[in-house]
Amino acid sequence: MNRELFNQDRFGLLFRRQVNLYMKSWIIALIAISGSLIFISLLLMTASSGQVWFETFKTLGVIAFFITGLIFTSNSFSEMGTYSRSLQYITLPATHFEKFAVGWFMSSVIYILFSVVALVFASAFAGLLSLLLFKGEFVVFNPFVTKGAEVILAYFIAHSAFFLGAAWFRRAAFFKTLLVMIIFNTTINILFVIMAFVIFKPFEMLSDAQSFYMPFDAFTKLEPIVRNSVFVYFSLLAIVFTITAWVRFKEREV
């Protein structure tokens, strides 16, 4: 086999194979979520004379597609979890990097595109019902806004953790990854609380509260710095997770 790390033709063939394997379940899930959102929106229109349904549609839609995407991400390498299918997967005429790249590309970029399209069409159909049945406004989900970009960024960060879980765990990757994340997050929070007590000594501050204060405008100035620091931290964490997933994936395929 050609030892070239990445070949466009091999990548395309492997991508089409993965689409044939998983796209049917993807489409069923997307249709089920879209139908549920339209049904819930119709109930809200009936209860509120066609008003306020859109905000609920956006919130529930983003949450549903977000969680579903992480579940699909956790199944990116499910073929390697069973003996019969793992042999077939390992012997595919593609490099480790091409298999890894296809799994990442499908569960992140392709899934986001499918989700956005599904939300737009579902909201358009629900908006049409609102207009025709309840004389409401015809509104459509718009992904090209600041909050839409923030949600997509948050998905990429969460995706990196569950993609690592897909490469690391053989079975029940979603639930195992979720458990690890809960333990990790709890541990980090406890460490931060301990550090805060050691560094800032809140009891001493309370006993001398009049000499310790921070003007409101200081918090306003610090807010962008804190937000950017959090963004950088989680972005770096996502990169580390993806690199670790790549290392673990190679180990499993060897």
How is this structure best described in words?
The chain has 8 helices and no strands. It is mostly helical and 254 residues long. The protein has one domain. The two termini are 16 Å apart. The model has no long low-confidence stretch (mean pLDDT 85).
Descriptors:
254 residues, mainly alpha, 8 helices, globular
In short, what is this structure?
The protein has 254 residues and is mostly helical. It has helices at residues 8-47, 53-74, 83-90, 96-134, 146-168, 173-200, 202-207, 216-253.
What proportion of the residues is helical, as a percent range?
over 70%
**Ends apart, CA distance between termini:** 16 Å
Strand pairing plus helix content: what structural class? mainly alpha
Number of helical elements: 8
Mean pLDDT: 85
Strand content is: under 5%
Radius of gyration (Å) = 23 Å
Give the biggest sheet.
Answer: none
Low-confidence stretches: none
In total, the number of domains comes to: 1
The total strand number stands at 0
Write the H/E string, N to C.
Answer: HHHHHHHH
Q: Give the overall shape, derived from the CA principal axes.
A: globular
Helix/strand layout:
Layout lengths: L7 H40 L5 H22 L8 H8 L5 H39 L11 H23 L4 H28 L1 H6 L8 H38 L1
